[in-house]
Structure formats: C-alpha cells, structure tokens
Amino acid sequence: MLHPPIFDPTKTFEENALEGPFNGFADGKVYEQVGEPDHDFLGFKVYEPFGIPAGPLPTFKHIKAAFEKGFDLPVYKTVRTREQKSHPWPNVVPVLVDGDLTMEKKNAGLIATEEYKEPLAITNSFGVPSSKPEFWQEDMKKSVEVAGKGQVMVASFQGTTNEGVSVDDFIADHVLGAKMVMETGAMIMEVNYMAVLVCGVASMVVGFLWYGPLFGKAYMKVMGADMMSPEQKEAMKKGMWGMYFVQFILSLITAYVLAYHIANWAGGESAVGVAVCSWFGFIVTTTSSGALWSGKSKKMAWNMFLISASAQLVTFIVFGLILGNWY
User: Fold this and answer.
1) Measuring CA to CA, which residue among 173, 182, 146 is closest to residue 72?
2) What is the rounded CA–CA span in Å between residue 219 and residue 221?
3) Cβ neighbours of 201 (radius 10 Å)
4) Mean pLDDT by groups of 10 residues along the chain of 327 residues
5) Rounded CA gap, 63 and 215, in Å?
6) Which residues have CB under 8 Å from 55's CB, separation 6+?
7) Measured on CA atoms in the order 188, 189, 193, 198, is the torsion positive or negative?
C-alpha cells in the first residue's frame, strides 16, 4: 500500500479504537497552516474543505490526529443511543478489479485478496458500530474542543432499530441521538437526505392541494389567468411539467437549508418552531414585498399574499414535522 492508513485493516474495529491511530497519523508531526482560513463551509471558515469520513475515526485520538495532519473537517464515527458491536473481523477486504468496476463485473462476482495495492479497490462491512453513550459523549466533546483555528469536527449519528421496535420508537431513538450529539457541543451534524427528499415530495402535495382544489380558482384570478387568451392558456399548460420540476428542485433546496438550521439550532426538539420562525423571517417578508410591488389593486395584492404565504406556512410546518421527527 503506497499510503499506510490511519485505520489498520489487519486489526479488528475494537483494536483500532483502543490502539490507533496508526502509521503516519501517529508520528506526532503537526501540519502548520499559514495565513487565515478563507474557505467557507456551512458558515464556518476553514483552511481547506477536506476531511476524513466517519468510518476510520472512532475516538478523540483519531480526530485529533486528523486535525494535526491538516484535515479541517474530520467526521467522528457514527454514534448511536446504545452500544452496538462491530461485525466480526475482517471488516475491510481488498478486491481485484481489472479496470473500472462495472455492473457486469460486480454481478459476475469479485475476487478478494490480501494485498493492498494501487489502484486500490476495497469492500467493507462494519455494521455501523457504536461505543456506549457514556463514553462517546465525553469523547466527542473533547474532539469538538481540540479543533484548532479553521477546523470543525462533524458529528454523525443514526437511530437504532431491532426486531419488534415500532417506527415511532425508531424515530424517537433517532431524535434522542440528535439531542445527545448536540449536548457535546458539535456544531455540524450530517443531514439525512432521505428526509429532505420526503420534504420535497410533501411540498408538491401541499402545492397541489393549495393551488388546486382549495384556492386554485382564487389564485388564478389574482394572477390574471382569467384574462388570458386560449392560446396563452395552452402555452402555459405545455410548460407545466418543466415548471413542476423546477419547483421540486427549489423545494429540495429549501428543505436542505431548513434541515441544516434545525440540526444546528434545535436538534429536532423544536423543529417546527425553527420552521415557523424561518417562514416569518424570510417568506412573509419577501412574499409581502412581492405583493406590495405587484402593481395590482390592494385587494388583489392582499389576496395574492394570503394565498402564497399561507401555503408556505403549511409547507414549512410540514417540513418541521418531517425533519424534526426524522432527526
């Protein structure tokens, strides 16, 4: 192997946690940054937006070593609300791949080897192990505090389910995990993109109901659709699917940004509160401004504002419920 890793694949996960880090990360040398951090990462200034993913960094020692080697965004090993053992060793196995790994080669089966060589291809199976909360909370807190100038530790967590556990219990466990991570002082937590995707779909459902059966006729009148010619209406219908797609992407962006704020401000505890505050601070102001300068009569502008702002309020509340419970 050209670059001996921080995680020794010849040892068990537990041995790596207790004895690591290894190789170049254990030589005591510290990479000294020069100047000021000038890269922006989610509102934090860092020297370089590079890090190490959660897998090989199970303890404070590993996070500290990553910081010392100039990795400004290391991710602490994914944690749970309870202890979970790793899958049995070996957890990392090199495989032989001739050229690029295609679906055809994957379906035909890969051959494992004991030799790590470039270009490196591996497969791994850990089972997302986690130490006891009594250990990882204190250990993660130290990892947060050891970050130097221009460095941020990223936290990773997930809910735990077992046979007989209900969906509500799983969600509650996920929320508890977020709260426990927040107690360590971690400033960034990984976002669950599935929750963001569900928010995007929910937004389209709310929009369909709001601008369809509920207030569709009133909104179309406010927008002047009743004054359109048949040709204009037909042209608008033809471009509808493209507009739906763009709106879905915009909804995903909104949900992603809101998820970031919830994860860093509320941890799921008051997610709806954060969502409503965001709606009031950003949506109400911009929507009212748009209505104010729309050139429509006061009644028409007021109706346009009420329909749009109320739709966004419902959407943001739904987002808060989804993201809060998912976290």
Assistant:
1) 146
2) 5
3) 14
4) 79 95 92 92 90 92 96 94 92 87 82 84 88 96 96 89 70 82 89 76 90 83 68 70 85 84 60 89 87 76 86 92 73
5) 53
6) 7, 77, 124, 126
7) negative
